[in-house]
Write a structure and sequence with these properties.
By secondary structure, the protein is an alpha+beta fold. The chain contains six helices and ten strands.
Length: 240
């Protein structure tokens, strides 16, 4: 199954921008945010979100199916369970890049497709949408060429290729079936929105090439709420 570039990432970007605009309008309606101290209610809400985020870490979501195998929406070098309600779509990056490069003759379109479908040493292969489950974010799977590339080096290349990254924390992680991988947690700061948010990813080496599984989200709150789906992927991952 193929996914158009615009429908995959364009919608997410528009949602992020709209959320930022609406948030700014709300703040203006209340008055000058810089001149007021946070209310007790706001502080309590922030603390509650932090507690919920910590509780979500390490907890796996209920399974709603498997991706990666033949006949699944995404055929990958790995298999893992997808959280209940999440919807997976395969991405034929090669076809999309060829279409963008040769269809309109527009260099900008080709460069945009390249930036959306390739990140460092890996290429987009699968997008698992959380919207049907009530969240704004995606679990995305990226694959690279086989050739003995170390998972840590691949993950570093993936993160280094993203703009606005800071506070990266890498560590070894045990995946499903006792297989070892590398995980990273980091912040991404958007110059457009002037906001930072948490992101997480892990990488594993396979005979079919390296695989990176990445969890983003509209903001840090959404990211933390979706961590159980990410943990499910980690714990159930298998290499055929």
């Amino acid at each position: 199954m193929q996914v158009r570039v615009g429908s995959v990432w364009g919608g997410a970007i528009r949602v992020m921008v709209l959320a930022a605009v609406l948030g700014g309008c709300a703040q203006s309606a209340d008055g000058d945010g810089d001149s007021k101290k946070p209310s007790a209610r706001a502080s309590a809400d922030a603390k509650g979100t932090a507690v919920e985020g910590r509780a979500a870490e390490g907890r796996a979501a209920a399974s709603g199916g498997t991706v990666g195998g033949a006949g699944s929406p995404c055929e990958l070098p790995v298999r893992f369970d997808v959280a209940e309600g999440w919807k997976a779509k395969g991405i034929d990056a090669g076809a999309e890049l060829s279409k963008a490069a040769g269809g309109s003759g527009d260099d900008v379109s080709g460069a945009l497709a390249e930036s959306l479908l390739r990140q460092g040493p890996v290429t987009a292969a699968c997008e698992i949408d959380a919207k049907p489950a009530g969240h704004l974010g995606f679990l995305r799977v990226w694959t690279g060429k086989s050739g003995g590339t170390d998972a840590r080096a691949v993950l570093r290349g993936f993160v280094d290729a993203e703009d606005g990254v800071s506070k990266e924390r890498y560590h070894a992680v045990e995946l499903g079936g006792g297989r070892s991988g590398v995980e990273v947690r980091y912040l991404v700061t958007s110059e457009l929105l002037d906001e930072s948010k948490e992101e997480t990813a892990f990488a594993v080496s396979t005979p079919g090439g390296p695989v990176v599984v990445h969890l983003g989200g509209l903001d840090t709150e959404e990211h933390k709420a979706m961590l159980p789906a990410y943990e499910l992927a980690k714990r159930t991952l298998r290499v055929p």
